[in-house]
Amino acid sequence: MQIEESEQTQMENNQYPTILVLGASGTIGKQVVKDLEGKAVNVRITSRRQDVVDQLRSEGKDCGYLDLDDPRTFALALAGVDRVFLLTGYTVGMLTQSKTLVDAAKKAGVSHIVHVGVFAEWDTTDAHFAWHQMIEKYIEASGMAWTHLHPNMFMEALTSAYLPKNLTYTTYWEDCRVGYIASSDIAAIAAKVLVEGPQRHASKDYWLSVESHNGKEIAQLMSEVTGLEIRCEEKGLEEFKQLIEAWISEGADSWYASANIEFVKQMLDGRMSYMSMVQNDIPYILGRPAKTVLEFLLENKDALVASASQKE
């Protein structure tokens, strides 16, 4: 009996693992989905908006309705899923969201969870770092295979929260150094791990901190890229508190935003000096170098020039 081409494709797809990508509309999740294109996997994405789900389904995409604040939506979204990419929002709600999702994933027979956490020592006392570590331990205790990704400071912060203004790059932790990683490399690692699965990557921690710079060095790199003379202004904890208050007034989660104050405090007093470490597992997994800060800034040269030239 001759098998129709569409049926043959469906049979082949059923042999591939199904990967659920949470946060597929975000910076990292969107790139993970893109990096999974053309690979021997089925990709399922979700949205908490039914109209978006309906639109994506009409385009032929495997999309399910899922609201992280409503565990009743988890079962259908997880049905038939083999591997999960877990990246929750930046709120204290990540604790409940992740706990209930992990429970549902176990019920659904998921075999592997790839979680994006933080770059931290095991005994960190910074609140939002500790939240991520609690999630990691809960995943490990679930009995499912796991892989944890530990990115340091996102390079994207240099073109968003810390864009230079009035020829000035502002930092809030004096001359302390911080390690950087591009979100595109985080996504590339995640996609690689999701495709190759637990046989190769179970019980692995991958550390993502490519190179380390202080504020003056970042300002120098920005000057080199833009051709402008950008200086570094070192502000302190009180100025950072004002920044956080403005962030909260714009709708940021107050628990999560306030935890960033503790981050700066611990950077300044040395308890988080490990943030300056370079620990780069990308070449081992991807077989290529990681993106450097200079390369990232060159990609975003126009945005840097436009912002640095603005007067506050």
Mean model confidence by pLDDT: 92
Order of helices and strands: HEHEHEHEHEHEEEEHHEEHEHHEHHH
The rough form would be described as globular
What percent of the residues sit in helical stretches (DSSP H or I)?
A: 40-55%
Low-confidence stretches: 5-11
Structure summary, number of beta strands:
13
Structural class: alpha/beta
Radius of gyration: 21 Å
Q: Main sheet, how many strands, which sense, barrel?
A: 8 strands, mixed
Q: Helical stretch count? A: 14
From the N-terminal CA to the C-terminal CA, the straight-line distance is 73 Å
Strand order of the largest sheet: 3-2-1-4-5-6-10-13
What share of the residues does DSSP label as strand, in percent? 15-25%
